[in-house]
Write a structure and sequence with these properties.
Blueprint: E1 41-43, E2 51-57, E3 61-64, H1 65-83, E4 88-92, E5 98-102, H2 111-114, E6 124-132, E7 138-144, H3 149-162, E8 167-172
Antiparallel strand pairs: 1-4, 2-7, 2-8, 3-6, 4-7, 5-6
Helix pairs in contact: 1-3
Length: about 170
Amino acid sequence: MALRPGRTVRKLERPYTRVSQKNPRKSYVVGVPMPKIHQFRMGNPNVDASITLYLLAKDLAQIRHNALEAARVVAHKFLEKKIGSQNYYMVILRYPHHVIREKPIATGAGADRYSQGMRLAFGKPAGVALQIRKEGTPIVMIKTKKEYVEIAKQALKKFRYKIPVRCSIEIVE
């Protein structure tokens, strides 16, 4: 099934998505899909950084795992190309835990007989999302040297364009 538009899951909600470890039969969510984002730490963790930059969320929102991965790839490639992998350390600070469920919608001839309307409309897991439940929550951190601050800011701006949240950049020395 194709990926539905991001506007369908942008609203922040908390459905009952229980995944039981002790008694799996009591789980409402059968199998949580793995997030596309696997790498949360990039660059050189031992860089002697004098400046830390944070990307802070201005709104409450939900960011899907594929948007987070796309943003990570863009920022990481930009930093690697401009300043080299030894001069920065980038960390994605949040993990996508929230399970997104979708009810399959039938189209075509005879769809009304196949699709049961809203009966048992809990939905099947389609992906995971990162939920931002407080304004000012940091999403990404970049540590770098003083001479690379402008390039790190550009990387965070590129990251910001890929996610559906208004963000601000905070610089800490």
